[in-house]
Amino acid sequence: MKKIVLLVALFAVFACKPANSNDPVTPDPPIVVDPDEASVVTPTFAKGADIGWASEMEAGGRKFVKKDGTQAALLDVLKDCGVNAIRLRVWVNPYKGWSSKEDVVAVGKKVTAAQLPLMVDFHYSDFFADPSRQKIPAAWEADKGSLDKMSQHVADHTTEVLKALKDAGVSVNWIQIGNETRIGMLFPLGQLNYNNKGTEFAGFVKLYMAGYNAAKAVYPEALVMPHINNAFDASHASWWFSSFKAQGGKFDMIALSHYPQEAWDGKTQLDAATANSRAVASIRSLSGSLNVPVMVSEVGVKTPAGEATAKQLLQSFVDEIKKIKGCAGVFYWEPQVDGSWRPEVYTKPDELKRLTGQSQSGWWNAYGMGAFTTGGKPTSVMDVFAD
């Protein structure tokens, strides 16, 4: 892995805004790295946090405190909880530059300075890509009819972002090509129609492999992977990866999302304990059949039933997947939010419609599966990450 040493003291984390924000920037002290002095080690089991909203939160004045009440930068608070890895998403041309290349580089430098391994999650969109939407970035829209041109966009964007990270001295350990791509990416070119028994994976795999090859060219030692949701659905996941491989898809690892309280089996919602049990069995099966590590790159638990219940639900899941030899770790999605904070774009219906291509109906509410208090302190849910 790339070797890093911090030569200039870091006094603030996530204080600066992305380069294309409309607000004034207060620059951090410079971070200078020497690639030959120290290393960012990939943990045997990643206990990670996806903190894509962190830079916007801190720029807006949000402070964080450790469990003992001491105010500290978010990365220090997370490390105090036992978190040993960070995940950051990257969008092509997002609202005010949050999760843009510039934002990811700025935060990535601080992650590496903190000696934490990093996962970069490419959405290939201007906003969230997931099973409900995989919208082509506005800048690529003119080429939506050409698979070759769209593949080149994927390759160019992947190369541009990763080269910027590498030039900044950022250590990248894992790279995700696409986000929750169970039904494809970059619709309609990479959309998957399951009635076609997998033959349509050819277009999707061409797009994915453009990103995979670009990623390996810049960070050859990083583990590169596809990502699908519904970790509890073992049979469908097995079919998905078999179809993906049959069309030439390559991967060093696979990534899954698991939100136990949002699991549906057909038309029936599963109880969270059943969803956990099925996800554990699926991870064990996939790691064995595919002969690659499995990363739970997103997990989240709801707290309306009580903090203790949420902690127990997460604890039981993490305890079980730790026992699986082929499981590489788990990342909690946006733990630092409190159930009331929302990114600014959520309050902009017209902007949301532009970014998603969908009419909005008031469902962009605050994220309800965070694991911090309004005062910026970790709840007991974060105790799950302690050694």
Short description:
The chain is of the alpha/beta class.
Description:
The chain is α/β, with parallel strands linked by helices and 387 residues long. 32% of the residues lie in helices and 14% in strands. The chain is built from 9 helices and 15 strands. A 9-stranded parallel beta sheet has the order 9-6-5-4-1-15-14-11-10, with helices on one face. A two-stranded antiparallel sheet has the order 2-3. Helix 6 (234-246) packs parallel to helix 7 (272-290) and helix 7 (272-290) packs parallel to helix 8 (307-322).
Please give a handful of descriptors for the protein shown.
387 residues; alpha/beta; 9-stranded parallel β-sheet; two-stranded antiparallel ribbon; globular; disordered N terminus
SSE layout and pairing:
Layout: E1 46-50, H1 54-59, E2 64-65, E3 71-72, H2 74-81, E4 85-90, H3 101-113, E5 118-122, H4 147-167, E6 174-177, E7 184-185, E8 190-191, H5 201-218, E9 223-225, E10 227-228, H6 234-246, E11 254-258, E12 264-265, E13 268-269, H7 272-290, E14 294-299, H8 307-322, E15 327-333, H9 349-356
Parallel strand pairs: 1-4, 1-15, 4-5, 5-6, 6-9, 10-11, 11-14, 14-15
Antiparallel strand pairs: 2-3, 7-8, 12-13
Helix pairs in contact: 3-4, 4-5, 6-7, 7-8
**Which percent range describes the beta-strand content?**
5-15%
* Number of discrete helical segments: 9
Main structural class: alpha/beta
The helix-strand sequence is EHEEHEHEHEEEHEEHEEEHEHEH
Distance between the termini: 24 Å
Biggest sheet architecture: 9 strands, parallel
**Within the largest sheet, what's the order of strands?**
9-6-5-4-1-15-14-11-10
Instruction: Please mark out the parts with pLDDT under 50 across 5 or more consecutive residues, or reply none.
Output: 1-29, 34-38
